[in-house]
Amino acid sequence: MSDTEQTIKILAIESSCDETAAAVVVNGRDMRSNVISSQIALHTLYGGVVPEIASRKHIEKINQVIAQALSDADMTLQDMDAIGVTYGPGLVGALLVGVAEAKAISYAANIPLVGVHHIEGHISANYIENPDLKPPFLCLVVSGGHTHLVKVTDYGTYEILGRTRDDAAGEAFDKVARAIGLGYPGGPKIEKVSHEGDPKAISFPRAKIADGVYDFSFSGLKSAVLNYLNGCRMKNLPINQADVAASFQQSVTDVLVDHARHAIREYHMDSFAIAGGVASNGVIRAAMEQMCREEGVKFYHPSPILCTDNAAMIGAAAYYDFIAGKRAGLDLNAVPNLKLGE
Amino acid sequence: MKILALDSSGLVAGVAVTEDDNLLGEYTINYKKTHSQTLLPMLDEVAKMIELDLNTIDVIAVSAGPGSFTGLRIGSATAKGLALALNKQIVSVPTVDALAYNLWGCREQVCPLMDARRQQAYTGLYTFSDWQMQTLLPQCAAGIDEITAKINESGKKTVFLGDGVPVFADYLKENLQVPYLFAPAHCNKQRAACVAVLGGILYRQGKAEDAAAHKPDYLRLSQAERERQEKARDFRI
Predict the structure, then answer these.
(1) HEC string of B136-165?
(2) CA–CA gap between residue A273 and residue A285 (Å, rounded)
(3) Among B18, B38, B175, B184, fewest CB within 10 Å belongs to which?
(4) Which residue numbers delimit the Gcp-like domain (chain B) (predicted)?
(5) Distance of CA B219 to CAs A137, A226, B80, B139, B142, Å?
(6) Residues placed in the known binding site of A
(7) B82 at the A interface (CB within 8 A)?
(8) What is the pLDDT of residues A140-165, one digit of tens each?
(9) The pTM is what?
């Protein structure tokens, strides 16, 4: 049997934010299980993720989630060739639960350990449902914590073209949603309301960064929305929640699409992918698809369940790191501000 | 009976393996390096030295709180991962009890103090009589003034230990009205061997739990939960 025909089974663990997740992925593409224990309902009480509560929930759920992932895949720990775990970026207390657990399992069961970058995971989510997707391609990662435009030059090799200078796109969704009384989590709620609104009703800014053509900035947009709301209140004008939501969402979409189109042209890419929680936003997704059609490039996107934080994407990324020979030691630590490509 | 014990509840990281009445190996580090990086390499080192086959362990004992929230979770997640892979149960050992166990046989009152910030300590009161540890005040989070008042009220000679001692030493010197001592270096911090021995006692009492169900006992809510409760209370008033 040649190397390429070998079957590599990976147990993946993810706990970087508010989802406790485990999955079994074979050869980086074949998802055998994908278990996610979400804490969203709990954090909704506080209007956002509370790190200490997230960490406490992770430790309560992690063994059950792992056991479920193995049993859904109809496999045991002894069948695994490697364990992949997210070690950054993310909330340090939350990451540490997954990292300590994964290291202990790896040590006790004598299975190699691979540390995975969370964003690398999001990008790799695209491999699971798209067997034809291979590097090089461009990927826009948009989530509650990240906004990165990345050139994937090879498996495990990334060039960051642009990133947010302030708020992540998803963070802007959460903040605006709170300001217009929709609450947490902002992304799905804004998208839902926006269908009844006019995206051209209010002209919010599309930020451009002078010295970083691919960088993003969403804090100005957020302030513009807050100023607009304050202005209306001072003048006693009615606020149309749906119009604000739709116009804000359109502004974010335009900036994301504009940056992506620019990069596709400059780097002559023929494949473009989106990833991360915000990538499940239907309006953004449709706009990206439209842009890709216009530019004549293939468009890839994960299903919503693979856009949100999950472990299957970590298993996909871990596979390519594993076959490249990357291994983590018993001293692997959580790195809350881990940079991509380190 | 073989017990693997872990303690990462405070500044000390500790690993110990006991077999019946023998301590086979113990590794204690009281240094700034993070427990996340040290705990498992320490276990690996001990295991190699005593040629430990992890499968022969009967139960995993872990110092389960109170303590540093993150530190407790590193210990618990490590114990849970080991237990999952080895198909073992976990015994949760109260951290302050295990700390007091350092002074096994001491006839005076024993008061462990762990720095819990905000002028509070994780503490308790113990004594050793009838050949075993007696709990006079179960482990709790209390103001240093409260525990000092309680000790003064008891009128008993008291031995203090724990990483809270240097933090509260000045306060204690000024306010204690009973004879007291601070325990010396070899027995004044968390030791995994104590966790192992107490873990064995709890195990024989049938107090082991499934690894999946184990979680630390923080003795405190998170700040967000506390503030939310306070708000709700204010609202009711």
Answers:
(1) EEEEEEEEHHHHHHHHHHHCCCEEEECCCH
(2) 10
(3) B184
(4) 24-226
(5) 50, 40, 20, 9, 10
(6) 118, 122, 141-145, 174, 187, 191, 281, 309
(7) yes
(8) 999 988 999 999 999 999 999 999 99
(9) 0.94
